[in-house]
Write a structure and sequence with these properties.
single chain, mainly alpha, 4 helices
């Protein structure tokens, strides 16, 4: 049965599905609530505050310079996919 449904899909549905596979946030973004955004922000901030010092500590253990360096690729205005 699933194969029959795929064959019956129109070209418009196939193109829509193809593009949504590259940018999936379009499907869930309209349902994203402010409380989820706040929770995600706090989680990201927490991880960022933990990972940066941890990386610097590992760098000092390895004998590397502790100054964080930004990769030239990260400085580009548009990052290649």
């Amino acid at each position: 049965m699933p194969l029959e449904r795929e064959r019956k899909m129109s070209l418009k549905e196939n193109v829509k599905g193809y593009f949504l596979s590259f940018i999936p946030f379009i499907t869930w973004l309209p349902h994203y609530s402010l409380s989820k955004a706040r929770s995600d922000f706090v989680a990201g901030l927490t991880v960022g505050l933990m990972v940066v010092p941890q990386g610097l500590a590992y760098a000092s253990i390895a004998g590397l310079d502790e100054q964080p360096r930004i990769s030239p690729l990260a400085q580009q205005p548009s990052c290649p996919l």
